[in-house]
Amino acid sequence: MGDSLLADRRALVTGATGFTGSHLAHALRAKGYHVRALVRDPDGANAKRLAEGGIELIQGDIGDAEAIDQAVARMTHVFHIAAVYRTANHSDAYYERINRDAVGYVLEAANRHGVERIVHCSTCGVHGDVAEIPANEETAFNPGDVYQRSKLAGEMLAQEAARAGAPVSIVRPTGIYGPGDDRFLKLFRTVENGTFRVFGKGDIAYHLTYIDDMVDGLILAGEHPAAIGEVFLIGDDSYTTLDGLVAEVARAVGVKPPSLHLPVVPLMLAATACEFACRPFGIDPPLHRRRVAFFTKARAFSVDKAKDRLGFQPKVPLADGIARTAEWYRQEGWLKGSGKTAA
Questions:
Q1: 238: which residues sit within 8 A by CB, 6+ positions away?
Q2: What domains are defined for the chain?
Q3: pLDDT of 226 over the 50 cut
Q4: Exposed, middle or buried, 342 (CB in 10 Å: 0-12/13-18/19+)?
Q5: Is the pLDDT at 47 greater than 70, yes or no?
Q6: % of the chain with per-residue pLDDT over 70
Q7: Within a 10 A sphere around the Cβ of 340, how many other Cβ atoms?
Q8: H helix or E strand, kind and range, residue 270
Q9: Residue 102 pLDDT > 50
């Protein structure tokens, strides 16, 4: 599809060198948008791939208000995807600067330059450990760590701007996965080599979103008239359990799923000790409490609002998405198995 169809639509994507942002930038370009990406290092491999796809690069840091202002200039759409995710060696102030303050810079610049549509990417994590499932957009906030708290603070700025009349839409994704992302690689590898262990009962709810569906949801939030001023959870049609997720991964890598379940309390104690031991040295600990949350925190959400108001329809079921992800890992040389299902 050429530029002629949407030649008047110019979209800035922040976080475009990351997993979700890169997929979104290429999808918008394929739709005919002129796409601009704010990147720290134009010579980096991810930035070069964007440029090869016809995406304009502008150098700058998401924590720099002046750089954001320059990037937003002459844009009709802004998709704010950039964030600092869960790593244990960043200070709380760093999370706040990137996940909260930068949102304010984006909103101010968008207002100053008359941007037509703004999509702010938040997280389902603002709801924390969900007590009643499936949760929805009205479920109480319950952030459980500095990442979730800082993302909630950023979302509050976006909600405030929307109440003041800014053309803002807010998306809260469930866990995003798919080819191009390595966050779930450790899970796939340890399931394949037989070293993965389930801590706890394995019956906690787990909700994912395949990357293509996530991109569809973000674009709908930036184009559909009914999205303005609204918040939408975006995810798969249905959720699973941790045991269900592990079983799908095992099927995709051709092994039997683990049957042993270990108590989670000793793991949490070890994570706490590891975190405190590493922090004075600025080391990212191999085990920390946020990783233990993988086994303990329920994540299950309704996406009915996005389906009803935006026409959002997830297209890639979990089994297909996990299989595609495993195949990509295999092509990258990160998995050893053939992918044939174990007998």
A1: 318
A2: 3-181+206-239+299-315 (3.40.50.720)
A3: yes
A4: exposed
A5: yes
A6: 94
A7: 8
A8: helix 265-278
A9: yes
Of 173 and 5, the one with more pLDDT:
173
Q: Distance between CA atoms of 112 and 186, rounded to whole angstroms? A: 43
If phi over 0 gives left and psi between -120 and 50 gives alpha, with beta otherwise, what is residue 83?
Answer: beta
Q: Are strands 240-241 and 205-206 parallel, antiparallel or unpaired?
A: antiparallel
pLDDT band at 165 (very low <50, low <70, confident <90, very high): very high
Distance CA 309, CA 304 (A): 8
Give the three-state DSSP class for 228. coil
Cβ atoms of 107 and 118 within 8 Å: the answer is yes
Q: Is the pLDDT of residue 180 over 60?
A: yes
Average pLDDT over residues 134-140: 96
Asked if residue 80 lies in contact with residue 119, where contact means CB atoms within 8 angstroms, the answer is: yes
Residues in CB range of 306: below 8 A, 6 or more apart: 217, 220, 232, 233, 234, 312
Helix (H) or strand (E) holding 43: none
Nearest to 228 by CA among 172, 161, 314: 161
The C-alpha atoms of residue 38 and residue 40 are separated, in whole angstroms, by 7
Mean pLDDT lowest for which of 42-46, 134-138, 266-270?
266-270
The overall average pLDDT reported for the chain is: 91
DSSP H/E element including 290: helix 289-296
**Are 82 and 105 contacting, i.e. CB atoms less than 8 angstroms apart?**
no
Q: What is the rounded (10 degree) CA torsion for 66, 70, 75, 78?
A: -40
